[in-house]
Amino acid sequence: MTPKTCILIGAPVDSGKRRRGCLMGPDAYRTADLAETLIALGHSVIDRGNLTPAAHDGDQPDHPVHALNETIAWTQALSEAADAAMTQGLPIFLGGDHSLSAGTVHGVANHAARQDRPQFVLWLDAHSDFHTMESSDSGNLHGTPVAYFAGRDGFDGFPAVTNPVPEENICIIGLRSVDDAERAALQTSNIHRHDMREIDEHGIAKPLQAFLDRVTAADGMLHVSLDVDFLDPDVAPAVGTTVPGGATVREAHLVMEMLHDSGLMTSMDLVELNPFLDTRGRTAKLMVDLAASALGRRIFDRVTRSY
């Protein structure tokens, strides 16, 4: 295994939805020994601390889109941080709700464009997050980042997407809760999408390997966005968007081990961890274990957990 320089960037984003608590996520990952775990695997770790949003006007509480100005400000700050970190190593963004990925993918895609390489995104999530501000009934922006970085219209005020990720370069695995408007948009898109029924019937390795093969063939850069609700809530309760029937611990580790074997991952999000809803830190520890598998921990190195 080639050692990497892992850049930890805290993104305490809590503006993408109304249920609070994700702002505590970055420090929960630190408390769960993310840095120490990566160092034990032979990597170098630089912790940049927690970001703050760019300067912005206050949000009106009666606006149909929740915390719009704050989320735009986070998108700007995260895009700049992501772009800069790509020149220094492999950035791992510690969230924070999933609206943060609007900024992280925007930034890494800008970097990839300057390298004249295509950007790919693996989205591990129960939801497609393919809403625009117009289609979202909830007004919660954590349901919109994929639509944003894919270049869909309807994001006035956000940083311009000059290097959209082509739809065919996006793969969503773990779907089991998709709104009608998102379903209609997805069905007319070129996004690769795999719901839990497909995974139950055919396994998780086949669609993932097919996607990784496409990344390899294109010499692409791969951003991995891991949402806590990709996992079944029985094993990962610390999320405000629980949907039963998610990935098992073993399926999730297989995904991460395949990512490591491929050597393709160039950046990563760990999102939607709400420590307020956790049980003795078990979800944070599991997410750290999954990050470790993505960065080289072998099955024989797996630690025993006592909760």
Report on the structure:
By secondary structure, the chain is of the alpha/beta class. It has one domain (5-299): Arginase, Chain A, CATH 3.40.800.10. It is built from 10 helices and 8 strands. It has helices spanning 25-31, 34-40, 68-85, 100-114, 145-149, 180-187, 196-202, 205-218, 249-262, 282-294, and strands at 5-11, 44-50, 90-95, 119-124, 170-175, 192-195, 221-227, 265-271. It has an 8-stranded parallel β-sheet, sandwiched between helices. Helix 9 runs parallel beside helix 10 (282-294). The radius of gyration is 18 Å and the shape is globular.
Blueprint of the fold:
Elements: E1 5-11, H1 25-31, H2 34-40, E2 44-50, H3 68-85, E3 90-95, H4 100-114, E4 119-124, H5 145-149, E5 170-175, H6 180-187, E6 192-195, H7 196-202, H8 205-218, E7 221-227, H9 249-262, E8 265-271, H10 282-294
Parallel strand pairs: 1-2, 1-3, 3-8, 4-5, 4-7, 5-6, 7-8
Helix pairs in contact: 3-4, 8-9, 9-10
Q: How many E strands?
A: 8
What is the CATH superfamily label?
Ureohydrolase domain
For the sheet with most strands, the description reads: 8 strands, parallel
Radius of gyration, CA atoms, in whole angstroms: 18 Å
Report the average pLDDT across residues: 94
Structural class: alpha/beta
Any descriptors?
8-stranded parallel sheet; 35% helix; alpha/beta; 16% strand; 307 residues; Arginase, Chain A
